[in-house]
Amino acid sequence: MDANQEGSRKAVLLVLVLFVLGIALGGVGTYLTTRVLAARTQPMLARNPARTMAKFTRNLDLNSDQQNQIQTILNDMRARYAALHQKLDPEYEKVRQEGRERIRQLLTPEQRPKFEELLRQMDEDRLKRQAAGIRD
């Protein structure tokens, strides 16, 4: 094989690798972006309801009647979000545990304790985020 053919093959391989990486990174970026955007509405309301109401009042120039009505709506939204989470959290947990078990089955005996420690840290971080009003 001459150097020209070898160079062409390397170029094609490089383009193919870059294409696959682009697809993978695009998928990860899309996933993360949608999770972040989907998670923003509820925590904004849960973290500091008074700040949310003050921002609405200031930016929309709400009168007191509108403020009361919007406050009622926001309270209702928070309650409904909480009810949804209470209803769906067990299903999320089931999927999480099933996935973890599938991963455990793939790991070597040396990898399993490291995986369990990683899971412990991830669970701890998740609980901290939930305590701060940020849902997974």
Give an account of the 3D structure:
It contains 4 helices and no strands. It has 136 residues and is an all-alpha fold. The protein has one domain (3-131). The chain is flat and about 80 Å long. The relative contact order is 0.07.
List the SSEs and their pairings:
Blueprint: H1 3-47, H2 49-60, H3 64-106, H4 111-131
Helix pairs in contact: 2-3
Highlighted features:
mainly alpha, 136 residues, single chain
Compact description:
With 136 residues, the protein is an all-alpha fold. It has four helices and no strands. Helix 2 crosses helix 3.
Number of helices: 4
Structural class: mainly alpha
Rounded to an integer in angstroms, the radius of gyration calculated over CA atoms is 24 Å
Unreliable stretches (pLDDT < 50, length at least 5) are none
Estimate nothing, just give the exact number of structural domains: 1
Tell me about the largest β-sheet: none
Number of strands: 0
Distance between the termini: 54 Å
N-to-C SSE string, H for helix and E for strand:
HHHH
Chain-averaged pLDDT: 83
Proportion of β residues? under 5%
Quick one: overall form? flat
Name the assembly state. Answer: single chain
- Name the helicity range: over 70%
